[in-house]
Amino acid sequence: MPLADARLFHVNVNCASLERSRRFYADGLGFEIGAHTAPESAQPGDAFGLERARWDASIMLGRQGYEGGAIDLLEWHEPGPIGTPPAHITECGLQRLGVRVPDLDEALARIAALGGRAWSDPLTHNANGHDIRIVMAEDPDGIAIELVEGGETTVSFVAIACHDLDHSLAFYESLGFREVARYASDNADGTHLRVDGPVAMVEVVLTAPGGGDALVILVGFRVPAPELLPPRAANTVGMWRAAFLVGDLPAATTALAREGIATISAPVSMEMGAGLPELRFVCFRGPDGEVIELIEQPRV
């Protein structure tokens, strides 16, 4: 089990304007700024597959703080941001970010005033015998967010659209992820997902090897067919990586190599900005082009 102690730390969201997106996630959804990472100068960008790397970012926290998963809201400076988020929810890779909010209607009213919008009216979904209200929405850059009503503001999950669900599930299970639930849905009308026509899919809910409340969901589409596109560059607007904390980065990297999983670079240490410790991490791609980051737990 290569990632025996890994737990979801944050989901990276590349934005075109950090100030605009920070207002959206703070004033619209109720997140708070936990840290500000802004290296003073560019550093080698090998870990991201880039020549150089400099950014300005805010780590946005829900009510559970770092224990509940966070959003790494990041504006690239060197190189600057490029591109747009996936145009369709069927595009393989990081698909949508799940966010729990106390009051769905209030959240929708706030995000509408801050550059976001809902894709449809809220729906009632039955999960394990309990009815919950959900809606697909997007942030000011068009990044897909599923808002889930109930409980304090927190990151609930990150979803990955899969080209071959069984293959992707086997990959994550080989890393130590564990299936905890599975849902199949078949809708004649996919408007709520911005799909023309029917939608049929299976969602497999995984918990990280090290536990934690924030989950990973693998999504396998039967109708329409999933779209496997070339990998996205690290500075593309949208979600690019999901970061997991590990206690021993060299051991985890060695274990990945034993599984035949190549990393984008060797583990690196990078400055995070004034007053913050350097972080040591490594990135690798999953089977659907999504990027997984392993961050070594900082020594306090």
Structure description:
- The chain is mainly beta.
- It folds into 2 domains: 7-84 and 233-274 and 283-296, Roll (2,3-Dihydroxybiphenyl 1,2-Dioxygenase, domain 1), CATH 3.10.180.10; 93-223, 2,3-Dihydroxybiphenyl 1,2-Dioxygenase, domain 1.
- 14% of the residues lie in helices and 43% in strands.
- It has 4 helices and 18 strands.
- Strands 1, 2, 3, 4, 5, 15, 16, 17 and 18 form a 9-stranded mixed β-sheet that branches.
- Helix 1 (18-28) runs antiparallel to helix 2.
Top keywords for this entry?
300 residues, 9-stranded mixed β-sheet, 2 domains, 2,3-Dihydroxybiphenyl 1,2-Dioxygenase, domain 1, single chain, 18 strands, mainly beta
